[in-house]
Amino acid sequence: MIGMLLGERFALEREIGSGGMARVFLGRDTVLDRPVAVKVLNPGHDETDIGSRFRREGRTAARLSHPNIVQVYDAGEAELDGKKVSYIVMEYVPGGDLKGMIDKRGNLSEVDLARLGAGAAAGLAHAHERGVIHRDVKPHNVLIDAYGEPKLTDFGIARALDATTSQATRTGAYLGTALYSAPEQLRARV
Fold it and tell me: Is pLDDT of 179 > 80?
C-alpha cells in the first residue's frame, strides 16, 4: 500500500496508526501539495455495521468546522491493492495524541490541563451545537497540533441527534471505551 495513489490524488507514505476498524496513513494530497491523514477501512468491513459507521464518520465529521476538531477534506471509495476500499482524508495533525503526551511527559501541569481541556471542550461544544455527540472522548482521540493545541478526532461512533437510536446502536449495545465512560452509560441509563 505504501507509495500507492488512492483516488488518483492521495499518495500513501507510511502507516501512522491502526485499529480494529481501519488503518491511518500519512499521505500527501498531490493536487494541493500538503500532508494529509488517510483513514482506510480494513478489508471485509465494507458491507457490515462497521462499514456503515465508518462512512457515517466521514459525513458526520465533515459537518464540523472548528479549530479544535480535525478537519475532514474528502471521503469516498477507491481501488487500493486491487480491492475496493472506503476512505476518509483528514487534516494531518503532527503532534501525536494526548495519551502519548501523557505517557512521555507524565502528569501534565495545571496550565496544560486547563488549556487542553478548554480546547477539547470548545470542540465538543461546537459538535453538540450541530447535533453531534462524540461518544468516545478519550486521550487517544485528542490529537495535539504543531502549536500544542488539542483537536478532537475519531467520530466513528458519534451519534447525530437527528438519527434514531436504532440507527446509532442496537438496544442493549454499548459503543465507546469502557475505561473512559461514565458508569451510568455502562449501566445503560443514559
Answer: no
Active site residue 103: no
39 annotated as belonging to a binding site for a ligand: yes
CA distances (Å), origin 135, targets 52, 59, 178: 16, 16, 11
Query: Structure pTM?
Result: 0.81
Residue 85 has pLDDT above 60, yes or no: yes
Residue position matching grid coordinates 455527540 = 133
186 or 83, which is more confident? 83
CA distances from 110 to 106, 107, 144, 146, 162 (A): 13, 9, 17, 20, 37
Catalytic position from the list 136, 145, 154, 162: 136
- Nearest Cα residue to 123 out of 98, 88, 86: 98
CATH of the domain at 86: 3.30.200.20
* Amino acid residing at 165: T
The predicted-structure confidence for 102-160, as pLDDT tens digits, reads as follows 999 999 999 999 999 999 999 999 999 998 888 889 999 999 999 999 999 987 666 66
Split into its structural domains, the chain has a count of: 2
- Residue 9 DSSP SS3: coil
CA distances from 66 to 1, 120, 135, 150 (A): 31, 11, 18, 11
Give the residue from 91, 106, 140 where a domain finishes. 91
